[in-house]
Amino acid sequence: MGVPVFAGEVSLAEVVARHALESPGQTALLFEGERLSYGDLARRIVAATRLLAQDWHVRSGDRVAWLGASHPGELVLLFALARLGAVLVPLNYRLAPGEWDRLLADCKPVCVVHDITWAEAAKALAQRNSLASHCVDELMAAPPASDAPTDGKADSPVLLVSTSGTTGGPKLAVHTQANLLANMAIAAASQELSPHDRVLTVLPLFHVGGLCIQTLPALYAGAEVVLHAKFDPGETLGAIAGLRPTLTLQVPATMKALVEHPRWASTDLSSLRAVWAGSSLIPTALVEAFHARGVPLCNVYGATETGPFSIALGPTHARTHVGSCGWPAQGVEAKLGEGGEVLLRAPNIVARYWPDVPALDADGWFATGDLAVQAADGSYTIVGRAKELIISGGENIHPAEIELVLAQHPAVAECAAFGVPDERWGEAVAVAIVAKVPCTEGALRLHLEGQLARFKIPRKWYFVDALPKTALGKVQRAALARRFA
């Protein structure tokens, strides 16, 4: 299965340069009222490349960390590093300083670039790790340059992204320029992106979801990106009404915040030809809330290592396949391995973790750790994580199937099912509930009866103030199991 190709770029920096030649006046980025055309963006990338090489002494193969909210300068930095053949290491600003230190000790960047908001934390981080620190404003104000190094190649590493560490310590996935280009082509084709689109980006660029599902693919297609520093439901609804984007990417937590916002019902959503969700599992009530407003809620499945554009449910099937992730995107191969684990093979999937730990098997397949079922029409539905499977009395129980039904109860804000040791059954199904309003175990049991087999109904119920989560928002069921074992 071939990868869709719009142009013949072999390095990331060529993407913006192509649009700067073909449509220099087309808006590339809109951020806090400032517009950058593709011509402007290309010039800033060349100027930043020269600054990085001459003043900051960044060389091919070097790593440069970023600490800050989403900012056009982070994208300029990425493309400039791509020209140099150097590597961007975006840091999750939600992590603790000690976690940043461990990541930097692993990949040893030569400097840290930061925005104004995170200046103090970045300078302290740089001092602790004996690194230089630079403000992004300096990068964006680099003097014009007529030329700059172009040492980046297709196989040059360009992005190191931390995995969530759900089942162990985080690892750094090594994305090459070829990986990102393939993902941009795959994602752009799947979402039918064109220069006529305006994409609203509100998810953080430190993660491949915010960066690679729509933002980079939109720039690849010559579309306009409206970039927000951080997600705010009121500002997002205001941007949809005022700027009239055609696409945006959300996750269940932001979808919930939008649907529950006072202006949700009155906001004009008619400009949106689709909303895409970057999540393997989306509560049905949230999907239906968007469909009720006439907006197809599409879904993309993948992982930090897989681009992440792997399996996609587009607008055509959004209403008929609620709960499904859809079909493999063009250029992506998928199959179910032992126990129903999703295996993927594609040119946008990383080959290794930093520094040189293989991520693929001998035949090039990536084991996702996610379990799925495949329907007769070929579509995939994720049912849980391989290491989170609950085996009770010989029955295999996926936490997700319990959680999706429980989440439909009006008193449930969040929930997580997990297994705890049990002398009789081996494991017993337990569930932790974060309630919106006071509710009882009996009421929730009654809600599940008739919708789930009896052996799937939790035997142990715990009402908690919050669920333990990774820095990227994934529920840590193992932590719950340890707490309530």
From TrEMBL:
Domain AMP-dependent synthetase/ligase: 17-354
A Gene Ontology biological process term: fatty acid metabolic process
Pfam families, per the entry: AMP-binding, AMP-binding_C
Keywords assigned: Ligase
InterPro entries from the UniProt entry: AMP-bd_C, AMP-bd_C_sf, AMP-dep_synth/lig_dom, ANL_N_sf
MF annotations from Gene Ontology: medium-chain fatty acid-CoA ligase activity
UniProt KW Chaperone keyword: no
The keyword Ligase is assigned to this record: yes
Positions in coiled-coil regions: none
SUPFAM superfamilies given in the database record: Acetyl-CoA synthetase-like
Residues making up the signal peptide according to the UniProt record: none
Residues in AMP-binding enzyme C-terminal domain copies: 401-474
Protein family membership: Belongs to the ATP-dependent AMP-binding enzyme family.
Official protein name in the record: AMP-binding protein
Species of origin: Ramlibacter albus
